[in-house]
Amino acid sequence: MSEIALHLDSVSKDFGRIIALRGINLDVQPGEFVSILGRNGAGKTTLLNIISGISTPSEGEVLLFGTDPAASSNKSKLAVISHEMFLYSNLTAVENLEYYTQMYRVEGMEDKISSVLETVELTHRRFDLVSTFSRGMMQRLTIARALLHDPQFLLLDEPFTGLDQHAIAMLTTILKGQKAQGRTILLTTHDLHIANDLSDRFVVIDKHRVVYDAAVGALGVDELRSRFFSAEGAQS
Amino acid sequence: MLKPSLAIVQKDLRMEFRSKESILAMWIFSLLIFVIFNFTFEVSRLVMLEIAPGLLWVAFIFSGMFGLNHSFAVERENGNLRSMALMPVTGGSIYLGKFLSVTIIMLLFETLIFPIFVIFYDLQLTATLFLLIPVILAGTIGFTSLGTILSAVSVHTRNQQILLSLLLWPLVSPIIIWSVNLTSMVLAGEILTNFLPLLIRIIAFDVIFFTISFMLFDYILED
Ligand SMILES: Nc1ncnc2c1ncn2[C@@H]1O[C@H](COP(=O)(O)OP(=O)(O)O)[C@@H](O)[C@H]1O
Ligand SMILES: [Mg+2]
């Protein structure tokens, strides 16, 4: 019996008078790859913060693997990649990763670290301080860091933003590999083509509500764009 | 429980020793305090001994504030404190880790400052001077146990340093005042009967502050 990976029931979130999310219902099955699309300010980041347990909903219920997202059993299953790098610039790449393996109690630290560094092609810079890295390299190290503890559930908030073509291809390959291993992935992005290429399902959030939720292929990329992301779409 | 705390201490000390600037800055700052008070005010040795304990603690507290700010600025950078909230570790072990690293760094500052103090105020190194060790330890731990949790509270606010000072000073000042009193007794070589009760009172506050902060830290991390 495979328990449901994520269950959101009428989740709303306000920041004082600011509305961030309204009545979100969302179920995600284990191994599913879901892309969340929406304009700036739609509430995507807020949704991810609620799923990761960093933020609590104002109303509604969230269950991650059947329990509270902030439960300690969930934390070791989860990886978050956001615009915040979660890196110490005054440590080297390896020192950052060592710190993470200790905090996540990862077995076989050294092998694990060299393997993730290999994956993101940073092996040659492993003993350099992160402060000497370019932004793209920091993003790659962030991806390496997120993979260290073999997370069951990946939450990625616009992970492609700011990456060059090569790094986009690298991350695409990594995510396909993660999916092949049965990991559950939830991703927000502006890039409909990448989302179309990677995911099983599209969820569109507009004005803090889910306005579309269907398997990839139900609507073509152009159709989605004209319905939800064109100038006219904004009016309707 | 202890392993993640030690991982935090290890990374903090690594970074601190890599950028020696903060240690150097603190040392020069303390030197300045002592120089200014030693040469600007022509006071008798008796008066000097009256104010010296206060000056010593001013130097300690400023170095402590500096250390706290630095330690939490590093956590604010790149969202690292939020990253800690996502890790499978308890708030208590994060608190313990930050508390230990801040305390170790502050004690290190104090060890570097104290010799300058001894030279400037021409103190005789007598056996009673060793009584300063428990006093400094207790006073420092009181400051860092509170300072660690309050820094975490204020780290995501805009006027971080102001908020930290506003929260920290009222709570920590009794401990500092008692520590100054005890230091005066030791420097004057007059250990009064209330020395031990006062020291125990500081230690009791340390234990209370530490325990409460340890238990509350989980709530600090979620916002
Ligand atoms: N911490 C916060 N305090 C106040 N308002 C917030 C906060 N976080 C998000 N918001 C508001 O909630 C809404 C949704 O934001 P967000 O989830 O970041 O959108 P998205 O990621 O889709 O661009 C926005 O109006 C934003 O200004
Ligand atoms: Mg966002």
What can you tell me about this protein's structure?
The complex is a heterodimer of chains A (236) and B (223). Chain A is built from 9 helices and 9 strands. By secondary structure, chain A is α/β, with parallel strands linked by helices. Chain A has a domain of 124 residues: Rossmann fold (3-Layer(aba) Sandwich), CATH 3.40.50. In chain A, the strands form 2 sheets. Chain A has a 6-stranded mixed beta sheet, with helices on both faces. Chain A has a 3-stranded antiparallel beta sheet with strand order 2-1-4, covered by helices on one side. In chain A, helix 4 packs across helix 5. The C terminus of chain A is likely disordered. Chain B is mostly helical. Helix content of chain B is 83%, strand content 0%. The two termini of chain B are 23 Å apart. Chains A and B meet through helix 3 of A and helix 1 and helix 4 of B. Bound molecules: adenosine-5'-diphosphate and magnesium ion. Magnesium ion binds next to helix 1 of chain A.
